[in-house]
Amino acid sequence: xxxxxxxxxxxxxxxxxxADPERAARFYTEVWNLSEVARAQGVIYLRGxxxxxxxxxxxPSHGPARMRSIVLSARDRACVDALHVRxxxxxxxxxxxxxxxxxxxxxxxxxxxxxxxEFEVVCDAHDHADxxxxxxxxxxxxxxxxxxxxxxxxxxxxxxxLGMRLVDNAGTQFFFNADNPDHCTIVxxxxxxxxxxxxxxxxxxxxxVMRGTGRMHDAGYPVEWGVGRHGPGDNVFAYFCGxxxxxxxxxxxxxxxxxxxxxxxxxxxxxxxxxxxxxxxTPPHTTRWKRVxxxxxxxx
Length: 300
Ligand SMILES: [Fe+2]
What we know:
It is a single chain. By secondary structure, the protein is an alpha+beta fold. It has two domains: 10-123, 2,3-Dihydroxybiphenyl 1,2-Dioxygenase, domain 1 (Roll), CATH 3.10.180; 140-292, 2,3-Dihydroxybiphenyl 1,2-Dioxygenase, domain 1, CATH 3.10.180. Helices cover 18% and strands 32% of the residues. It has helices at 21-31, 77-89, 151-161, 206-218, 287-292; strands spanning 10-18, 35-40, 43-47, 56-60, 66-73, 98-99, 107-112, 118-123, 140-148, 165-170, 173-177, 186-190, 196-202, 225-229, 236-241, 247-252. Strands 2-3-4-1-5-8-7-6 form an eight-stranded mixed sheet, with helices on one face. It has an eight-stranded mixed sheet with strand order 10-11-12-9-13-16-15-14. The chain is globular. The mean pLDDT is 97. The structure holds fe (ii) ion (FE2). Residues 143, 145, 198, 200, 237, 249 line the site of fe (ii) ion.
């Protein structure tokens, strides 16, 4: 993508609230294969092997487990400021852009989407020098899928405010590309609730997705849908109900695109009867997955 594009560059991290943060941290380190990097004021921070200081912050919940916020990355301060102007002009009442007090520092602002979900846009945060992809360990958050009944206002926010590009639409799913080569970074799912659909952690390769799937199975978290290869994005997928029924995906081999990629709509992304992925190997998703992919509310 062009370096002059004013757009977010990816998902830096998410913050979640769990009833038992210690148990959740054990799951994310021992089974999901993240690493703990810090603890402060009751919050546990976990990293992938990529450079981001952390990709997951686990807060204690004071009610049902839920999503807290999504932290998006931007290239530099000029880009953050340009995005801030757009978000303010769009009527989203962002906080003043400035130095963050967060554990990973940086410069940015926050705002709430049309459904009240909290987003942050951040640059210049403290990152790790080591950022290599490591077999069988998540590298970064690849994409986040949000359920919404407000496809049009959410699409307007993602494209006109955050500079993302709608690159595909398959049935209820709308795929948005950030300023990076990954096919999509945010996906919207047309649904009657403003909840989380799932969070996808990117593994270095197919072998890692398979190893992770086996490790999840051994730990009592069987695959709920997959393993398969999606149509849009061409990525390998395996979906799980994680600790506290958090909807999780291991993914890899995401299609890399540039500005020449052309949009295809639902008529193009149709499977033959009985097929749910490119390989034709995954069974239908479980009833439990269907329930869990609408379960997580956002703090508002
Ligand atoms: Fe996904």
